[in-house]
Amino acid sequence: MERLLTVSGLTTEFRTERGTVKAVNDVSYHVDEGEIIGLVGESGCGKSVSQLSVMQLIPNPPGKIVAGSVEFEGQDLLRYGRESREMCAIRGGRISMVFQEPMTSLNPAMTICRQMGEVLTEHLGIDKAEARERSVDMLSQVGIPDPGKRADDYPHQLSGGMRQRVMVGMSMLCNPKMIIADEATTALDATIQAQLLELMYEMVNKYHTALVMVTHNLGIVARYVHRVNVMYAGRIIESGTVRELWANPMHPYTEGLLKCVPKLGERLVPIKGMPPSLINRPPTCPFLPRCRLRQKSCFEEPVPELTHVEGDHYTTCRVRLEGLTDD
Amino acid sequence: MTTKTDSINAPGLGGEVDILEEQLLPPVNEFRRFVKVFFRRKIVLIGFIIVVLIVAMAIFADVIAPFGPYEQDLHNVLAAPDSTHLLGTDSLGRDLLSRIIYGSRVALSVGVITVLLSAAVGTLIGLVAGYAEGALQSVIMRLTDAMMAIPSLILSLIVASILNRGVLGVVIAVAITLFPGYIRLINGQVLSVKQNDYVMAGRSMGSHKARIMFRHILPNCLSPLIVQMTMMMGVAILSEASLSFLGLGILPPTAAWGGMCYDGYKYLMMRPLLSIAPGLAIMVLVFSFNMVGDGLRDALDPKLRGTSSN
Amino acid sequence: MIEAARGNIVDIVNLKMYFPVRRGLLKRKIADVKALDDVSFSIRPGETLGLVGESGCGKTTVGRCIVRLYRPTGGIVMFEGADISHSGESDLRQIRRKMALVFQDPYSSLDPRMSSGDIVGEPLKIHHLVKSKKEYDERVAELFIMSGLSPDMTDRYPHEFSGGQRQRLSIARALAGDPSLIVCDEPISALDVSMQAQILNLLQELQSKNDRLSYLFISHDLLAVQYISQRVAVMYLGRVVEISDAGELYANTLHPYSIALLSAQPLPDPVAEEKRHRIILTGDVPTPLNPPAGCAFHPRCPRAKKECSESVPPLRDAGGGHFVACHCV
């Protein structure tokens, strides 16, 4: 498979009154063409910020990308300015995003068709009549009943599930190479969520589009994702195929996360404590205060880089990597 | 980072566990944050200093003013500014500067009393309307709208001409134009605060209505109320000055800026300072209160409470 | 369906809750939203009843009717054997010591202007449960510890706590009156996965220490409900469509909606997910303002037949206390 996106050493900081927050800290990962990868972690772990950084959508100030590179189809995106023509062409054209809240992502004062048409005329420079035709066709592809008529509706006239279908359709309009779905189905009801996930899965397979699923829902990851990156306190702490990670989690956080999900007949083992504050963090392992495997060296040395274990599996746990425990 | 550990028996974590100090968000010094945001804009700082100076001027008028407010110097009627009378004298030979200094007492006291009175009445009615909802709210709010539709100066003039002239009359005449604004503000605020689950939690715990209104709802309406009150200080001072200018306000010979403007108006060609100086005093004070109100609005913004961002 | 009321903490019988839709200056009623239509179930002492369903199905309304924040339009709410469906405010004040609510949103459920100690101690003051300041302080500290919070934090304000800790504060407040029922309305859905597990375990531990403490656990998360509940009720558009012991319901799901709901929830296990046959429902959840005739689920039901659009299926025993409302079962 062709390499589509390579992110290396990405670091994004936010300045606050209490100090500098490294919301994304030395994050490296890659996405291949047509691949579905997952990015999991709890709120505040930097999973959304890392994706917004890739798209250069971080509000500056207070945020700033301070290091790293984002290579997409052979171009380094960070070389382009935030508002440059190149970046605007990539956003929505080559990479598109689907956000959690479809109500705020759509302009309430414009009809669905006009909003979709605008994306098309902007990126592909086609005329209005053709834009409408393509929009209606896309609406029918994403399963909107009676798309010719619904195209002239305003967002508030659609249900939450329908709006998110529109968002998915909009993200596919210019046939992008990659879609970032940032908690795209979190706000929806269970049965509607299932519909949307199936729809997205079908669409990206049909058009051979890569999909980055940003979510906290391990069930979604288990079902749809091939490879997954686990984020904690701004860092990717473990990465691997879902099967490998589930069967053999190396990092105690990944392990803990998997045990936090209720399973039949098993008692929950919560991870004790809470995620740390990201302000002025020392370079040691961010999971250290909550870790049950911690050793003396963990307190003294900085957290290791994401290190290869086997196959696609990488981890940052020093104890496991160096075999300091027989656990 | 501190990793001081306290061991307590914390259920939900399976027995004895460490509660790490760093798990608590660092305490936020609300006062320091407030001061920092409040004084971030220079214009707010200037406004604040002017308000403080004028308040001090009103309190220490007896010490600061070179002459008494009614002291006449009949040899120097309508005198031009000189070393004894820094701003000159009026048609009765009274020192203009001293009268402006004493006039700040009237402006501030009328402003404060008016604002307190209208805020108290308006808040109470707004609280009841917002809490009751339904027909009672509809009636109160439509009456409020009707009152707000009457031009405020005309309303003040009518009320002032019915009531006795003097401080009390002016206060009531001005307050009556201001309190509907508070009803509106508090009613809207109550409706939004009521959406919070803690109000429902209070009811589910068996709290009395009064406890919910005064313990949970009112304190959470205070920030916009304080901002509104500061802004209304300016409006009240201006209204008092207008009434005095039109001869329905504070009775002469009391030094009131609005009345002084009117008195000086007759000699505008000869001694323009007689009108302009008190007019400027009104303008500066009103402007300063508005700036302070602006700063308060930023500093009391609930979105910023407890946040660390700038 | 109506079981012997003796000894139950809660019995609700044919509960109806209609919310009027009002328009215009005179607030004339133009329609009713039937949030609850004929809901009946009981909660036994020391039991956790899970209540699952999608948004708008009325699960929150049930909880609020039980603690009588709403006055039901019809039917009966019994609390510890007494009919409270039409009790006045002063009677309710006495009863409310014995029941408490835990809300979904850990941010809006705590008054930002009160210190965490005052929040937790408020029920003690309202119901005059302590005699002295010293006793009050001791009791508050005890509640903090019971909920897994350090008693040193009583002076802190809610915004200084994280979401999980705030939910612990909510639970501490709920425990203050030594209640026999806590209605937990989506208590974990706003929390992170690791915090969810902590709160679920906390709730369970509290129950294991007090065998009369019952929960009504309202959630859309079937896995969490399965974990914590002894019995589970599934709701769809204002009605209970299936109710049974938790083990039975998950092992032998009968109602097509319950089956679809279970199927919609992705399991956090890639191996099991691959083997699983999933049912994806078509269509949207209808609005309770204008529910479909007959069985409300029939327009989306893969097994719908003619009868389903004509009459509402009654909740009937399918054997062993497993009740289901479906014409096809």
TrEMBL record, chain A:
ABC transporter domain sequence ranges: 5-258
Bilayer topology: Peripheral membrane protein
Main location class: membrane
Record-linked InterPro entries: AAA+_ATPase (IPR003593), ABC_Ni/Peptide_Import (IPR050388), ABC_transporter-like_ATP-bd (IPR003439), ABC_transporter-like_CS (IPR017871), Oligopep_ABC_C (IPR013563), P-loop_NTPase (IPR027417)
Localization of this protein: Cell membrane
Keywords attached to this entry: ATP-binding, Cell membrane, Membrane, Nucleotide-binding, Transport
Pfam families linked: ABC_tran, oligo_HPY
Keyword hit for Cell inner membrane: no
GO BP of this protein: peptide transport
CDD domains per the UniProt record, alphabetical: ABC_NikE_OppD_transporters
Gene Ontology CC terms: plasma membrane
GO molecular function: ATP binding; ATP hydrolysis activity
Family membership noted in the UniProt record: Belongs to the ABC transporter superfamily.
Protein's name in the database: Oligopeptide transport system ATP-binding protein
TrEMBL record, chain B:
Membrane-spanning residues: 43-65, 106-131, 143-162, 168-186, 243-261, 273-292
GO cellular component terms listed in the entry, alphabetical order: plasma membrane
rRNA processing listed as a keyword: no
PROSITE patterns, per database record: ABC_TM1
Subcellular location: Cell membrane
Residue ranges constituting the ABC transmembrane type-1 domain according to the UniProt record: 104-293
Keywords linked to the UniProt accession: Cell membrane, Membrane, Transmembrane, Transmembrane helix, Transport
Family stated for the protein in its record: Belongs to the binding-protein-dependent transport system permease family.
Protein name as it appears in the record: Peptide/nickel transport system permease protein
Species assigned in the record: Sporobacter termitidis DSM 10068
Lineage start: Bacteria, Bacillati, Bacillota, Clostridia, Eubacteriales
UniProtKB/TrEMBL annotation, chain C:
CDD domains given in the database record: ABC_NikE_OppD_transporters (cd03257)
Family annotation (SMART domains): AAA (SM00382)
Keyword hit for GTP-binding: no
One Pfam family it belongs to: ABC_tran
GO biological process terms, semicolon-separated: peptide transport; transmembrane transport
Record PROSITE patterns: ABC_TRANSPORTER_1, ABC_TRANSPORTER_2
Entries under InterPro entries matching the protein: AAA+_ATPase, ABC_transp_ATP-bind, ABC_transporter-like_ATP-bd, ABC_transporter-like_CS, Oligopep_ABC_C, P-loop_NTPase
UniProt-listed SUPFAM superfamilies: P-loop containing nucleoside triphosphate hydrolases (SSF52540)
Keywords annotated in UniProt: ATP-binding, Nucleotide-binding, Transport
GO molecular function: ATP binding; ATP hydrolysis activity
Signal sequence extent: none
Domain ABC transporter: 21-262
Protein family: Belongs to the ABC transporter superfamily.
Protein name per its UniProtKB record: Oligopeptide transport system ATP-binding protein
Taxonomic placement: Bacteria, Bacillati, Bacillota, Clostridia, Eubacteriales
